Amino acid sequence: MKIILAKTAGFCMGVKRAVQIALETAQGQDEIFTCGPLIHNPQAVETLRAKGVTPLPDDVDPDHGILLIRAHGMPADRIARLRARGLTIVDATCPHVVSSQKRIASCSAAGVPVIIVGDREHPEILSLQSFATGPCYILSSVAEAQALPALDRAMVIAQTTFNAADYEAIGAELRRRIPHCQIFQSICKATSRRQEEVQRLARTCDAVVVVGGRNSANTRRLAEIAAASGRPTFHVETAAELPLEAFATFTTVGVTAGASTPDWITEEVIRCLTTPRPLPRAG
Ligand code: SF4
């Protein structure tokens, strides 16, 4: 069986950087905490826990040690509060998210209303919202854009992982309604490139394996895209979940992995798919 591994499989730049920062910080003596898991991959989170990086629930503040800010950032006021309490803050916010935070802060300080397009419960949105010092609206659909109050001007920015086609449609509606509307392109290409590649894999392979946490939205989306093409698609967290008998008839299998999947898990999946297995005994 031939395996084609997606070039975009595995950690994106922001996640790779956050994990590196976590591992470097873990060399010291202090306990390290994250509010919510550092990345959406249970196996990687357990590996990090063993090295001293403890995930707390999203809404629980650590009361000692080091707070490591995850790639999608945290609300500025919450960080300030924890710093004031004496915690050491290590910031692993992805540079793409930092750039959105800075744009929001500067437009808002200049008196421009802010419109953030994204999922209002997502930690990145909670973080972005906190950088607005004036009016700030959060929406995720054309219908919500139509329900906005009348505005003369606004800056519009999207969650870095928002769907590009939906952002385009919402942007068109906002341009129609708001005379002076500045729309920023803040969607991270890591997501769209990964999605385009899994589509190509699904077209050219007999089956697709998507490796990554079931709690990872971007991994689930990759599996949905592959499955929508009609190809047999297998979303697994680890090699142990592969239904190996199902692969007996496939000649070419495409493998990709979510932005929070460590390479060692994907490598293990490939090893398992390509290791010859003993033939079942007759009788
Ligand atoms: S998906 Fe893009 S914005 Fe999000 S952490 Fe990765 S590199 Fe940063």
Q: Short description, anyone?
A:
The chain has 283 residues and is of the alpha/beta class. It is built from ten helices and twelve strands. The strands form three sheets. It has a four-stranded parallel beta sheet, with helices on both faces.
Hetero groups in this structure are:
iron/sulfur cluster
Q: How many domain units? A: 3
Q: Which residues form runs of ≥5 with pLDDT under 50?
A: none
Strand segment count: 12
Strand content: 15-25%
Rg to the nearest angstrom?
21 Å
Instruction: Please state the oligomeric state of the protein chains shown.
Output: single chain
CATH superfamily of the largest domain: 4-hydroxy-3-methylbut-2-enyl diphosphate reductase, catalytic domain
**Alpha-beta classification:** alpha/beta
Following the backbone from N to C, one meets helices and strands in this order, namely EHEHEEHEHEHEHEHEHEHEEH
